[in-house]
C-alpha cells in the first residue's frame, strides 16, 4: 500500500488518465473505459467496474479515489432550481446551481473560492479571494450534480407519471462557468475541467453548450481560443472605460478597446459566431438611454448578443436593481438598433440561487468587507451625481 495520497480520478483529463494507466502497462482503451465509468456512469467504487480486469481494479483501489467535494447543504426551489453548497476545506465553500428550463438543463459551476476582481455588485467579490479550485473540484461539481439529477429522473420515471417537467430539462445539457470566481484567473485547472466536459468519453457536451463567463482577462481569452474554444460570455456591464473601471476593476488593466479586440480574435476560433455580452442592470448607474447608445456603438465593433441581468441586490452593495420598466426600455433601445437582446429571468429566488448571491453566507476570511463597500459605493455614487 502506497503511503502517498490517492489520486482523485476526477482531476485527470484524458491525456493524464491514459498516462497513468500506461504506467501500469494498460492500453489507452482501458483509460477510456475507466473514464466512461467515472464520468458517464458516475461510479464512485472500483468494485462496480466489472468489465475491468481484476488486477487493474486492485491497482486502482490501491492508488486512486473518485470523490467530489463534500456537500454541506442542498436546497430545492419551488421552480425546480437546485443548489448545492460544497465544503472545500478551511472554512471555504462554493456553490453549484442546476436550472431546469423547457428545452435544456443548465448547471452553473464555480471556479474559485472567492474572487480577486472585486466587482462592487457581486457578493463573491466581497468575500475576497480564498483559493483556486482544482480540476477535480470543478469537475466534481458536474459529477455530483449529474448523479443527483439522474437520480431524480429515474425516480420520476418509476413513480411519478404526472411529473410536468419535460425530459430535456431534467438532464444537464449545458454548463455555464458563472458561479463563484473568475474562471480565466484559474486557467490551467479550468482548462482541464473544460476538456472533460466536451470529451465524448466523459460528459460529451457540445462546445456550444459549455460557456465560460469572464470579466475580461484578455491574455487568457486568447489562450482559451487556441486551447479549447467554447462559447464565451463577457461581463461588459459598462459601455465606457470610466464607468467600467469602477464596475469591473479589471478594466483598469485591460480596458475596453483591448477587450473588444480580444473578443474579435476569440471569434476566429469560437464554436458560436457571436460573443454574449452580459450587462447587469443597476438603477441610475449604467441603465440610461445614453448608456444604451454607447453600447450600440460597441456592438458595431464585435458580433454579439446582449444578455441583460437584473441586479440581485444584497445589503453591503448599496446598489439597486433598475426598475422593470427601465430594463424593458433599455432592451427595446438595443433591439431597435438590430441587436439580439434577452433579459435574464431570475430563478431560484427562494433559495438565493441567483447570480452573485452564491455562498453569500460564507465567512469573509480576508476581511475585504471592511474595506470594499465604502470604496465601491462612494466611487459609483460620485459617477452618478
Ligand atoms: N467572474 C466571471 C464569472 C462569474 S460571475 C464574470 O464575472 O463573468 C457570473 C455573472 O454574474 C457575471 O456576469 C456577473 O457580472 C454576474 N453577477 C455578479 N453579481 C451579480 C449580482 N449581484 N446580480 C446579478 N448578476 C451578478
Ligand atoms: Fe469576480 Fe465575476 Fe464576481 Fe466580478 S462578477 S467579483 S469577476 S465573480
UniProtKB/TrEMBL annotation:
Gene3D superfamilies: 1.10.150.530, Aldolase class I
Domain Radical SAM core: residue ranges: 101-350
Subcellular location: Cytoplasm
CDD domains, per database record: Radical_SAM (cd01335)
Catalytic activities: adenosine(2503) in 23S rRNA + 2 reduced [2Fe-2S]-[ferredoxin] + 2 S-adenosyl-L-methionine = 2-methyladenosine(2503) in 23S rRNA + 5'-deoxyadenosine + L-methionine + 2 oxidized [2Fe-2S]-[ferredoxin] + S-adenosyl-L-homocysteine; adenosine(37) in tRNA + 2 reduced [2Fe-2S]-[ferredoxin] + 2 S-adenosyl-L-methionine = 2-methyladenosine(37) in tRNA + 5'-deoxyadenosine + L-methionine + 2 oxidized [2Fe-2S]-[ferredoxin] + S-adenosyl-L-homocysteine
Source domain of life: Bacteria
UniProt cross-references to InterPro entries, sorted A to Z: Aldolase_TIM, Elp3/MiaA/NifB-like_rSAM, Methyltransferase_A, RlmN_N, RNA_MTrfase_RlmN, rRNA_lsu_MTrfase_RlmN/Cfr, rSAM, rSAM_sf
UniProtKB keywords: 4Fe-4S, Cytoplasm, Disulfide bond, Iron, Iron-sulfur, Metal-binding, Methyltransferase, rRNA processing, S-adenosyl-L-methionine, Transferase, tRNA processing
Source organism of this protein record: Pollutimonas nitritireducens
GO cellular component: cytoplasm
Active site: residue positions: 95 (proton acceptor), 355 (s-methylcysteine intermediate)
Gene Ontology biological process terms in this record: rRNA base methylation; tRNA methylation
Binding site for S-adenosyl-L-methionine: 181-182, 213, 235-237, 312
Protein name (database record): Dual-specificity RNA methyltransferase RlmN
Database matches in NCBIfam families: rRNA_mod_RlmN
UniProt entry tagged with the keyword Transmembrane helix: no
Family that this chain belongs to: Belongs to the radical SAM superfamily. RlmN family.
Pfam families hit by this protein: Radical_SAM, RlmN_N
Record EC number: 2.1.1.192
Entry's Gene Ontology molecular function annotations: 4 iron, 4 sulfur cluster binding; metal ion binding; rRNA (adenine(2503)-C2-)-methyltransferase activity; rRNA binding; tRNA (adenine(37)-C2)-methyltransferase activity; tRNA binding
Cofactor(s) required for function per UniProt: [4Fe-4S] cluster
Binding site residues for [4Fe-4S] cluster: 115, 119, 122
HAMAP family: RNA_methyltr_RlmN
